[in-house]
Model the fold of this input.
Amino acid sequence: MNKKKFHFFAFAAAIYLNYGLVLFPSPAFAAASATLVKIDTATMGSWIGAYGSDGYIESQYSVTKYPAYATVALSKQANWTWAASTSRLAAVQKPDNPQDRIAGQWFSGTSFFIDIALTDGNSHQVVLYALDWDRNQRAETINVRDATTGALLDSRPLSAGTFIEGVYLIWNVQGHITFEIARNAGANSTLSALFFDPTTSGQASIQAVPANDFLNSLGVDPGYLQMMTTAPLFQYTGIRNYRVGTGDPSTPIALHNATVIPGIYPGVRFNLVGHDVPISARIAEGAAIASAGALLSFEGPNEPNSFPFTYNGQIGGGSHSWLPVAQYQRDFYAAVKADPRVSSYPVFGTSLVGSELDNVGMQFLTIPTGANVLMPDGTRYADYANPHNYVVGNGGCGVLRDNQAWNAADPILPGCWDNLYNEYGVTWYGHYAGYTEAQLMTLPRVTTETGWGTSGISEDNQGKVLLNVLLAQFKRGWSYTFIYELVDG
Done:
């Protein structure tokens, strides 16, 4: 035997004696690495076209696609199916039938693991989809480790409330790695799907928006303050919009003029509430304010469930039929759009339509054909939906917790808020059907009341919560958000 062969066999024997059997050749593993690319909360379960171009594995669904360059093994997980077929957007699309969805989970009361070996020596994108389907306030941490050395490559906590509608975590991965999904709170740690894609370079870009767009979305109901005393408060806070229904346009115009700071502050604009007031009078007031450049919008009746009113001789709202409310809102909208002085201004809907006793169809901006409601198909109510999704919520919801503001702003999340879903998806009182989840996601929306009074929480916490409210509402597609009140009543 020549020396080269002898040295090779001696080396192999030494490895065998010290470490056990070694098989040659081994897979072409590159050095293990994992770099987070982004976290995606917008796509929800609609992954087709966004992820999975190389491969996909959905929990509790038999149709899978494994990429040729990867081996995948799960361990220490249990399995569960929440919904084998559903239209809820948080559930993942079925790859062979994208119109249907499934909500399943791999889970553990402690931790479970996903071992992924990328065998071609290249970098690829690995995507995990976490979903707290039954809103169990789950919290977990996803650790990424070098499968050979155990070295921690990355760690991402998911706090309670952040993945009720699903979240994707996307890494560029190379080599042989292990994901650990570790429970922090709630029933268990959980994942619902795994996807593979070509790698992308660097952190995904974030689209900036002008600060002025955010500032223009801010509104407030000043409550019982004298209007002209609020000028320095508006200028100090930067809030742009005032919710009011005075009947006299002179004071709003005066406040607008008093608050203008050229190049810095454009002057207060006004949202005029129509409630138990002649429609023609409210439109005349709006026209005068519009001529001064100070009109923002019109709004329908305020919370008729608590404040019934009379229209055309009939009481509407409260314990009475909502037909007079619906007729007022319909006529108010039509009158605004017919008046050339104000026809270009938006009309916000009646607030708290989820409490309608009879199904007058106010859970729609325009009643669709075949809605089977008491008002005619095609009835137009508003340009914007208007829930009063108070962040403090109702009943036992008013406890400070992570992501309270983010969840209250969620357009499709049922909960203890008078939010978009409970007002325009399925009404909370009569359970009348409105828009689908997909339609709610793009429904034009505002809230003309939200907030959390200082009763029960400190002013410091109140300030933090309300700032989170304004940011969350803007991020989640609310065009305008009004805090109630400018000061505590």
